[in-house]
Amino acid sequence: MRYAHPGTPGALVSFQATYANYIAGNFTEPLSGQYFMNTSPVDGSDIARFPRSDARDIDLALDAAHQAADAWGKTQRTAARQPAVAGGRSYGSQSRKAGGSGELG
């Protein structure tokens, strides 16, 4: 079975032009402002731009994770699972727009 290329009619998946870091509940540009283009291993075509995150972005993400750890640890397993499932679904389906999406460009 052959699938339609992402972003074309009948495709099962599509990609945003640019993705962002997801830190502390927000999509944010990398502090360096740098991105890289990810390409398809099949045909070399461009897929999307992704943040070229550095140690500063990692430090922000770790700080946010440490701040959330106590509250997250007290969350019931079923409730804790919901944001991850919903977030993945929204991120993949591009249902959120700039300001609350993974798309910056």
What does this entry show, briefly?
This protein has helices at residues 55-73, 77-93, and strands at 21-23, 26-28, 35-39, 46-51. It is an alpha+beta fold and 105 residues long.
Topology readout:
Blueprint: E1 21-23, E2 26-28, E3 35-39, E4 46-51, H1 55-73, H2 77-93
Antiparallel strand pairs: 1-2, 3-4
Characterise the protein shown here.
The protein is of the alpha+beta class and 105 residues long. It has one domain (1-105). The protein is 34% helix and 16% strand. The protein is flat and about 45 Å long.
Helix vs. strand class? alpha+beta
Cross-sheet strand order for the largest sheet: 1-2
Largest sheet, strands/sense/barrel: 2 strands, antiparallel
- List SSEs in N-to-C order: EEEEHH
Which features does this protein show?
105 residues; single chain; 4 strands; alpha+beta; 34% helix; two-stranded antiparallel ribbon; two-stranded antiparallel sheet
